[in-house]
Model the fold of this input.
Amino acid sequence: MRFSTKAIRAGQSPDPSTGSIIVPVYQTVNFIFDDVARPHAFEYSRSGNPTRTALEQCLASLEEARFGLTFSSGMAAVDAVLSFMRPGDHVVSTEHIYGGTLRLFEQVYRPRGVSFAYVDGTRPQAFAEAMRRSTKLVWIETPANPLLQLVDVRAVAQITHQHGARLAADNTFSSPYFQRPLTQGADVVMHSTTKYVSGHSDVIGGAVVTNDDRLYEEVKFYQNAAGAVPGPWDCWLSLRGLKTLAVRMRQHEANAQAIAEFLQKHPKVQETIYPGLPSHPQHELARMQMDGFGAIVTFRLGGGVEQVRRLVKALKVFLFAESLGGVESLACHPATMSHATLTAEERQKAGITDGTIRLSVGIEDVADLIEDLEQALQSC
Ligand SMILES: Cc1ncc(COP(=O)(O)O)c(C=O)c1O
Done:
């Protein structure tokens, strides 16, 4: 089956007891045993639930993985991948990662004796230079938030494996529709399913997919042991979101490309960053390793926070909010929102100026989105 068909059918056979074509919400804690020491297919919903299994199988299939596991949030999924780190272990990570991931690394795992090195993800050689004998995991986010730098997944996978470590990729920004890192050498892929996978800004969730039997067993053990599992309703919402992932992503991307081209020509915009623009320094790599360029567009104004304030106040269709990946378009100010915990110096080093704005482009009529940006830019 091809992607769009899998998104609608994988893991979702008609319900055997009723014939329902939609996987039901199995809102139950426990399941009957057939005999002493002989559970039926499921026992207890922390360990497994049929609605969750359908979502896990569908996600695995879309990422071309054999195994999928879902969690109550993207952060719980990151934590599950990290769970096999022991004191003395070392992790090499791209320097531009989601702030919550950085907080988990630095404030939860570092105090437990795990060490981290952060490298420029655009330079595969930087990973090779940072590897140590104790490096167990390499963590990448590509494209990265909010400046959309890419990691060459194949090159970094090769370096990781030469050193006997595992490569984990946060694939949230691309969704499995635009990028499947397992097919390029990653060992494990993580998603905040809160974003494109669910797609409607109404559910928090996370997922881990892999082809590695041992890694699957380790993460599955942790999923049950720590218990950060999604409820059946949340799984059902994500499953429903997945059915339209392909059509949504195509529209997200078409709108993002048009907006990036509009912003690039606008006299008030200093710089527009989008992997689909030939001006993006890694446009060729994006063409090679992705099936599309995604729907996050970042641009810079020269006037700092005051100008940004005037712009976001003038926006009527774009909503001024954090997060991404929903059908509605959002504008976010990384310096005071997603990256507010960084010091001014750290932000400057990361290239996140006060005039940087990140758009999560939705699937509304693109003419309304461009008109909205035009009138807001005029008034800022
Ligand atoms: C790239 C990325 N990874 C992980 C997360 C964490 O996911 P969640 O908010 O579902 O816990 C986010 C959230 O914004 C994210 O953008």
Observations:
- The chain has a mean pLDDT of 97.
- The longest strand covers residues 135-141.
- Residues 73-75, 98, 100-101, 141, 145, 170, 172-173, 192, 194, 204, 206, 323 surround pyridoxal-5'-phosphate (CB under 6 Å).
